[in-house]
Amino acid sequence: MNDFKICMRILQTAIFFSIFLVIVGQKTSGKTIKPPSSAIHDVTDQLSILSRLVNGIAIQNGFDSNSITPDALLSELLHVGPGNVTLSEIQNLKTEGMAKDYEEIVKSASTMTKGSFGMEEVGSGFEILGKMAENLDMLKEAEALNLTDILEKATSAHKVNKRVFSSSIHEFAENIDKIFDDKTLIASATTPMIEMFKKMVKKFDDFENKCEDLASYKSYLKELWPMIGLTEELNKLEAVASTAKTFNESFILISSSIKKMDELNKELASIDLVVGNLPKMKLVAKNLKSMKLFFESVLSAKLQKRLLTVGFPNGVPDALQLFNDLKSEWVLEKVASKNGKELENMKTDLNGLKKFNKFASLSDSFWKILKTSNVRETLKKSEAIWSTIELTNLSSHIAKNLRTSSSDLSKCFKELNVSSVTLDFHIFEKRIEKLRELDRVAVEAGRLLSPLDKFPVLSNKAVILSLKTELQKIDENSTVIDLEKSMKNIRLNPDLKNLRDAISNASSIITEVENAEIRKPLETLESWDDVSIMQEALENTNLVNNLECLRNHSFNDKGLSQAVNFGSQFVQLDLT
Domain ranges in the chain? Predict the structure, then answer.
């Protein structure tokens, strides 16, 4: 941390040609020494002064002042490549006003509670409460849910007359299709056709019952239809289950968070004060990042030739020698003989440089310290924290509202109690899935069987019996002519043709029903105990009351999370 403090002190003084300024004043014998400048334009003015002095030296040495520009000589003096004479890397550091901002940050940081009670943990507790509060409406609706009625209907759904799903219709549909098929060769298959007629007569009672089942599917499945839309009701109960599970798993954490409301209020009050300086912190963070990048670029191969030890290869001794040279009468006379105005400028400039040079030695030593690996590593570590502060979207408005709502919460929050109900969430989910299946089955059955409504002939007993009459005319003594006559009578009868179409469609519908596995979920009746008990999962816990308290006071759990993250990062900075 000492290296970091030294690094911070680098910002206390103007580093010659590296443009660093005072952040926190040095204290000597109880007095604060202020730097000569805290703005980048002041330092660039000094660079301009040096340019003119260098130009003056060039004149007294007999150089043609029109052929050598001050910037080029300055570049040569600083050991900077010709393409970098504007010193753009240095000028990119925006340091003006940084000292004052930093001092304000230090002052506000000293007022901030250091999170001794584990604010991150409290923040996590309230984040969990906030997520549970999103289900508050469903939790309250679940309390009013007539679950007994729902489960009784689910039990009744298993008692429906399942004969409507019977596959016996397929064989009869296939046989009647043969009768209506013009391609059926009676002459070459007389005996099989006679056997088919006899078999149809033998099973006709079953066929007649099947027609009645299909025609009456709505009444047969009347206990199934109330299951449609059940999923919407189950969503409310699942919200209870999900909340109860989270509540049980996080009980200690959220209970602890509620018990620490007073401490939280103090913490938020201190954060509220600090957040006022957040815009300035972001600027400081940005500048620190720029400085780190500048240090890295100076140390990289790209800028190897730049020797920024106060602007001279040998550091302070070179600078002092320059001042001594410029003070010599010989130099002044030579310059005066060339250009009297130049002399006056140099005298003025020299006075400015003398003042500036008071800090040259200290700047030189700071620059050497800054190039050490320890300081660079410290800057690297602190950059992550500062970057977090720079990116935070916490605002004074959010912090103030958090402080107000948190204070209000303390008045309506109640102590949480452990749930007294033993819950098996695994079994509950299985039973809920079964109830969802009943919803699906009801919807699918209604969709697939509804086309049967187009065939009222299925309930017309007279038409059905007329088919039986024609079939009974054929026995083992019947001839080909008898078969042809009977089949012709069936084919020409429009009612029987309608019946044939109805049976053919019904067979296709039952095939779809079989593929949709509608019957299977209705076979096994389950116990609903693990479902019914879930409605009581949050009773007497005070959770719903507390979630309502959160909502009524518009508590911003996401804002709290931002504040917690900001606070936890901020207190990690050693700003002294």
Answer: 2-95+304-395, 136-235+422-536
